[in-house]
Design brief:
It is built from one helix and five strands. The chain is α+β, with helices and mostly antiparallel strands.
């Protein structure tokens, strides 16, 4: 019976942390709705440039082809991907070395 107590406590801790993460994401998304117009204007400066787009839990690399109020259209190797503005955290032009070639290692 006493061996179940640590397992039960671990499950409770996991559930609490997941609920907190969801609440934090909801607050960030609500706050970002007001900042979407600013992000829209800034993202338009990156059209036809190769960029790294950071989201909450991943990143996309490719050329930004289109920016509209809903999100960004990214082209990589002939395929298109759409990323919603609500999930974008950062947009960065792909770094190049002094010769103009893409850097192989990117440290953030």
């Amino acid at each position: 019976m006493s061996s179940y107590i640590p397992i039960f406590l671990l499950l409770i801790i996991i559930l609490i942390t997941q609920r907190n993460e969801k609440a934090v994401l909801k607050n960030i998304i609500k706050k970002r709705k007001t900042e979407d117009s600013e992000m829209f204007e800034l993202a338009q400066k990156f059209i036809n440039k190769e960029c790294i787009i950071y989201t909450f839990n991943s990143q996309f690399t490719g050329t930004i082809k289109e920016v509209n109020e809903g999100g960004i259209l990214i082209e990589k190797s002939g395929t298109l991907e759409a990323v919603n503005f609500d999930f974008i955290v950062r947009i960065r032009e792909y770094p190049k070395n002094k010769n103009g070639k893409k850097k192989s290692v990117i440290l953030d």
